[in-house]
Amino acid sequence: MRIGEIAALVGVTSRTVRHYHHIGLLPEPKRRANGYRVYTLRDAVLLARIRRLTELGLALDEVRDVLADDAGRELAEVLGELDADLARQEHEIQQRRKVLATLLDGPLTADAPLSPALVELLKVAPATSSPTAARDREHLMLLEGVIGGDALYAALRPLAEDPAVLPLYERLDELEEATADDPRIAPLAEELSAAVPEEVLAAIPDSGPTATGFEQALLDDYSPAQAEVVRRVMEQLTVRRGGRAS
Q1: In this predicted structure, what is the pLDDT of residue 143?
Q2: pTM over 0.70, yes/no
Q3: Contact at 8 Å (CB) between 235 and 185?
Q4: Contact (CB, 8 A) for 130 and 176
Q5: Helices 41-55 and 60-69: crossing angle, nearest 10°?
Q6: Looking at residue 213, what is its pLDDT?
Q7: Are 135 and 223 in contact (CB under 8 A)?
Q8: Element counts in the chain: helices (H) and strands (E)
Q9: What DSSP string describes 129-163?
Q10: CA–CA distance, 209 with 26 (Å, rounded to integer)
């Protein structure tokens, strides 16, 4: 193979191959009488390995160390490892396509959730114009990154389907202009906490939302009276979870 052919085979540029030669990462192959480099299958395998290692985030010096550890291995072993690596990539691609298929099946908007589990959860939730319900859905998108959302989204399905939840959101909306000592706060917090099923508490990891500043940022997203309701609900759920653990 010529340099352009091995570069095309592996999916890099000829310039990249020359750079690897220049820094000693890829050994220079034999040359023909006319000076052209002649590459073998072994060269292609080595170049493919270098490309894969760099795609995984390794610096070129780190790639050099890995390749030094591989010295003397049989070609069949190297090829087998590459094949296994391609199989892993193929599985990851299939999983990503399943996620995309689920997302494409639903209504796509600029602010649509990108979690299939959350998409399925929101499909069963009744339509509402409640501002706090809309805010709650935005917060649900954060949970995937903070505590891992899929199990929690599945546990929330009965709650999302419960028609009794919408009036609670509406009562929370009514506190938009209220102060943090409004008498409606305590009973609403009690009812909201009681509406959360045990399955939801079980789906929350023991560490809970541990991201720095997460709880305070959540409270800051509400008006003072609404934030007081949410704070009390969080406290009551924490107590319930503690009771479950004991």
Answers
A1: 64
A2: no
A3: no
A4: no
A5: 130
A6: 60
A7: no
A8: 13, 0
A9: --HHHHHHHHHHHHHHHHH-HHHHHHHHHHHHH-T
A10: 47
